[in-house]
Structures are given as structure tokens and as C-alpha cells.
Write a structure and sequence with these properties.
The longest helix has 26 residues. The protein is globular. The protein is an all-alpha fold and about 200 residues long. The chain has 10 helices and no strands. Keywords: Cell membrane, Membrane, Signal, Transmembrane, Transmembrane helix. This is LysE family translocator. It is found in: Cell membrane.
Length: about 200
């Protein structure tokens, strides 16, 4: 892979990471509910899930997903179900703490990481995205090192972006202002996640 090709890959991966969606909502929620460490953990585990999708694409597994409507539909429904579950949990939250999960109960770091991972794992549209993206860069003579660089680039950019989001949101003055509106933000987050779940199964 040439230097210019890699820079082009970075630019597209950045654009994909910055686009708002359920992943941003999950990182936001865990940053406000558990602080900087929870938000960063959710972001890093999300990046791990992104890396798995990128690896599957490079290995050719995404071709099977695209060519198998049944498998793709199953993954789509699983993803929509998980988004809906997150949305309902947010709507039912009492807002006793900043975006507290499950009616004010503290959320463990493991839960934050798992949510970050699951929100990316149950997103089959990532396979389609990486298939379209990597098809522009993968060549028959590409080495394993080149393939590994593509996977690492996608995962690292994703992890860095959501870690930055968690760092910015974890500033005490920011959290203080948002915390006063925790219940409203919980409701808005829940509605967004439910709408995204609906969009997944109808788009």
C-alpha cells in the first residue's frame, strides 16, 4: 500500500468514525454515567469490534454476508434488537445520576466495555461499509502486512475518536451542566436509539 493510498484510507475511516449514530450515544451515556474511564473503555471495545469487522472483510467473510440474505437479515435483526434494548433501558432510567443505567444503578467498567463492543459487533452495515471501502485498496498481490495495516488503521482511528469524545465530555464543567439535564438526555438518548433500531430494520 502506498503512502497516498494509506492517507486516503485514513480520511475515509475518519469520516466514518465521526458520523453520528448509536455508537456515539453509547459512549456518551457511559461517559456521563461512569466517567472518563467508562467512556474510554466503551470506545476502545467498540474499536475492537470495528477491527473484527475490518478483519472479516479483508479475509473475505463479508462477501458471504452480502451474498447470503438470510445471514445478513439475521444479523440485522440482532443489531436492531440490541439497539431497541438499549433505548428501552434509557427510557426507563429514573435519571437519578447522570445518564445512569437501569434506574440509577452503577454500571461496571465491564458493562461499559461490553456495550461498546456489542454495539459495533451487531452492526452488519459495517461489513458493507468495509467491503465498499477495502475493495478500493485490496489488490491480489497485497501482503499480510498491508492487510494488517488496513485493519489496524480502521480500529485505531475509531478508538482514538471515541476516546477523544470521552475525554472532552468527562471534563467536570461539561458533566456538571449535562448532569442537571440527565433525565431529559436519558429520554432523548432512548428515543434516538429506538429510532435507529427502527431504521436498521426498515432502511
Amino acid at each position: 500500500m502506498t503512502w497516498m493510498s494509506w492517507l486516503s484510507l485514513c480520511a475515509i475511516c475518519c469520516a466514518g468514525a465521526l458520523s453520528p449514530g448509536p455508537s456515539l450515544a453509547v459512549v456518551l451515556r457511559h461517559t456521563m454515567g461512569g466517567g472518563r474511564s467508562h467512556g474510554i473503555l466503551a470506545g476502545l471495545f467498540h474499536a475492537f469490534g470495528v477491527g473484527l469487522w475490518a478483519l472479516a472483510t479483508v479475509a473475505g467473510l463479508s462477501l458471504l454476508i452480502v451474498q447470503s440474505p438470510g445471514l445478513y437479515q439475521l444479523l440485522t435483526w440482532a443489531g436492531a434488537g440490541y439497539l431497541a434494548w438499549l433505548g428501552l433501558k434509557a427510557l426507563r432510567s429514573a435519571g437519578q445520576a447522570p445518564l445512569a443505567w437501569g434506574g440509577g444503578d452503577p454500571v461496571s467498567a465491564m458493562r461499559a466495555g461490553l456495550d461498546g463492543f456489542m454495539i459495533s459487533l451487531f452492526n452488519p452495515k459495517l461489513a458493507v461499509f468495509f467491503l465498499a471501502l477495502f475493495s478500493q485498496f485490496v489488490t491480489p498481490d497485497m501482503t499480510m502486512t498491508g492487510q494488517a495495516l488496513m485493519v489496524a488503521t480502521a480500529a485505531v482511528i475509531d478508538g482514538l475518536w471515541y476516546s477523544l469524545v470521552a475525554l472532552v465530555l468527562s471534563r467536570s464543567d461539561v458533566l456538571s451542566r449535562l448532569g442537571k439535564r440527565a433525565r431529559l438526555i436519558d429520554r432523548i438518548t432512548g428515543v434516538i436509539l429506538l429510532l435507529l433500531a427502527l431504521r436498521v430494520i426498515t432502511f
